[in-house]
Give the backbone structure.
Amino acid sequence: MAYPSLRDFIARLEREGELKKIGVEVDVDLEMTEITDRVSKAGGPALLFQKPRSAKDDVSYSMPVLINAFGSKKRIELALEVASLEDIARRIEALLEMKPPEGLFDKLKMLPKLAEVGSFFPKTVKTGPVKEVVERENISLGRIPIMKCWPQDGGRFITFPLVITRSPKTGRRNVGCYRMQVFDDRTTGMHWQIHKGGAEHFRWLDRGGKTRRMDVAVALGSDPATMLAGILPLPEDLDEFLFAGFLRQQPVELVKCETIDLEIPANAEIVLEGYVDLDDIRTEGPFGDHTGYYSLEDKFPAFHITCVTRRRDPIYVSTIVGAPPMEDYWIGHAIERIFLPLMRKQMPEVTDMHMPAEGIFHNLMIIAIRKSYPGHARKVMNAIWGLPGAMFTKCIVVVDHDVNVHDVGEVAWKALNHIDPERDIQFTLGPVDQLEHASRLPNFGSKMGIDATRKWPSEGFIRPWPDEIVMDEATRKKVDTIWKSLGLT
Ligand SMILES: Cc1cc2nc3c(=O)[nH]c(=O)nc-3n(C[C@H](O)[C@H](O)[C@H](O)COP(=O)(O)O)c2cc1C
Ligand SMILES: [Mn+2]
């Protein structure tokens, strides 16, 4: 049974000893970050700040702040209600294996799976807890305990929103998590980066030429699978709410907005309804970002709020990003595990992959392959540079399948042994992440692939390749038997 709402997830975290409630007053400006950062770095629990405060504005907020809710392997597994992320990978694999049925028997066999998929589609319902309070007048973001995360941040930022838009071109929905800088009581920034779904919808508004405005709904806090679905780098035409239904094995229930033509999760804590306008582009940032550095000021659309709907006693969900590891590392780890089967569908030669925390997702991907033909490692690099999300990878290290990609020490040792740098490094040019600060231009730069596989004669390597040193089994067994008598441990 999927979590009906965020609070059921919070209750579960508490039962599992994964939540700490903080009853003392904590300031939303910087203080909350310093506390959460220390807890993140120590592998600590989710935090529920019950008395958020702002000394600057002299406000004590009535809403608590939930943070670090997804900040460990265990909490991600609890969020997705699985014993291991591999369970989801296996369910995806089973889905992908569905072939068109050939005979009647095959068709019958497929029915349960098809029914399963069909039952994940989002369901529109009449109303839900998110409509307990509807505010059309006196809207104020000042009542929400929105954090200023880091000293040089341009202001306060909503860091964990689910931003819902509909394509002016196709009518398809997109859901993405894009931070929102508070400009005033009813206006924020909308930081959808150039490559993301929301930005693409905004571009079609311009190309369409019919209207200058696009409706946007923002859900703050919902059941955990739905929140995570907004972050997954799904193909453009795959509805995030459908994928959320697949993850929680129960459809997401949606309700219609009050002032705009969009649907939002019925179980959300708070929803901001509003619009963006082609003629209102503002300076956004700086913001202490995923990379551990500030992303600098840039131009993004302003989001105008026309209505707020919410629960009577909403909980505000926030997150902080910064030097790794943070909560976002664990979300990235979930993405890595969930998407491996999809990657393997296109590239069966991939046996495993890993994105270490220090690589901030985009900077380093280690990928193991079962090599079958000359140049195979480079084929894999090029394929990865063509995938959604993974296209940004600044450095790809390809190793043979017998290397444990999760052991960065082993990868460094073997890869550094196996490369002739001039021969084995492949540079390419292409789109880079908008947060990338070292590239020659914003959004455009170079990437590097390292072919750290064993080199073959068919690749022009004609010297003998040495074996890895391994002690023989008989000697190991012998030493096992005398080990205790040696008095060494
Ligand atoms: C905590 C957090 C904050 C994020 N902030 C942003 C952001 O401000 N802008 C952005 O474009 N992507 C941001 N992302 C990444 C997107 O949510 C992610 O790329 C997502 O897949 C985008 O969905 P889309 O492909 O439907 O646009 C953030 C991710 C996380 C985990
Ligand atoms: Mn999308």
User: Anything to note?
Assistant: The chain has a mean pLDDT of 95. The CA atoms of residues 1 and 250 lie 8 Å apart. The longest strand covers residues 270-284.
